[in-house]
Amino acid sequence: MSLIFHSDRHVAHRGFLVGYRKDMCGGVLTGLSGIISSPGYPGEYSNNADCSWTVHVSNRTVVSLVFLDFQLENNEGCNFDYVALFDGPTVTHRHMGNYCGSNRPPNTVTTSNQLLVVFKSDFNIGGRGFKAYYYSGECQQVFTAIRGNFTSPHYPNVYPNNINCHWTITLAAGYRVKLFFTSMELEDRNSLTDECDYDSVAVHDGSSESDPLLGRWCGSEEPPSLLSKANKLLVILNTDRNFAYKGFSVSYTGVVPVNVSCTRTEFQIQISQQSLPQLERESVYLGNPSCSAQMTPTGYKILARFVNCGTAGQKRRNITVLVNTLYIDFSDGKQQSVQEYEVQCDAQRKVASVSIVTVEERNRLNELARRAEEASGGSSEEEDSEPHDTSDIVFISICVLAVILMVIAIVWLVLL
Ligand SMILES: [Ca+2]
Ligand SMILES: [Ca+2]
What we know:
- The chain is mostly beta strands.
- It has helices at 359-376, 380-415, and strands spanning 27-29, 33-37, 50-56, 63-71, 82-86, 95-99, 108-109, 114-120, 129-136, 140-143, 147-151, 164-170, 176-185, 200-204, 213-217, 226-227, 232-238, 247-255, 259-262, 266-272, 284-286, 294-296, 299-305, 312-316, 319-329, 338-346, 351-357.
- The chain binds calcium ion (2 copies).
- Keywords: Disulfide bond, Membrane, Repeat, Transmembrane, Transmembrane helix.
């Protein structure tokens, strides 16, 4: 477009001011993640739009597309206004669907490292349009195994700028998810707002961003261990356009719903069949393998007298409780994996409780104990600080001596 301004020889006025906007859409996107939206979104999209976005991620991964909002003119067959998806860089590649109306298209994953998104509108009737996130495989993962680990992209090298990555943990119904950060190094909080405005990692108690937020962290803050209410947890990493660090690493474990009660003489432990569908009864035992579970029509059951299975008394907050360890052995031919749960009984009040004991927690407790020991025992740090103290004393002594000498000198001058 060109705009011509012409003035003649006399009479001038203030003139004009005009703005312009590129009514642009489409392009080639190569980041680990990004946003694709219709022109003018969330305002109404223009008629006769014809946009093509090609997402091209690294060779080894695939592209996922998640629609956050979707409202287009609706008609059967979706040939007036529509979004079309192709499993490759051109319309000759596999067509994955045409979408219109106001139902969000399903989450889509390519089989190759490229995705083509085409948006077209006809000559009338529009809508709000759409907004979608794309992720490369490195940046979007779903975990279903009982245990797992993941890291920010490129860890332990610096993470990319401008990413929004999602990791979803989805376990079988009944499980809860316990999550630990084993390492954390992101850009620090904004010192003005004291918020994680630049880069942050957030954890949601569920599978979507609208589920309750368990916390948002940045810098080198160490998030506490987190436990989901149900069987799903979502971890999101957001980074801004500059300053990147090493990132984070995380491990998680599925917590089996264990039902524990006790009498004055024994533990009663029940786990529903649904929670451990693939395990032999010998894989679930209290204290030692001779106290393994019995199968009932609904699941696994252990009735264990305190005297039989190595249950021991321990003082906890001035109360003697009976403590033992429940083992659930998930090991298969390939991998050794045994979960440990501490079961407790206050036999006086017949109150029982159970909590998972994880390797990460044990390591963290050991590490804290080691640090505490280092800090209290005659450590080298304290010895280091001594020379400072003595030098301070010497300095103060010299000052005092100088003052005394000055006073003597003044007195001597006055007497003369
Ligand atoms: Ca239309
Ligand atoms: Ca940053």
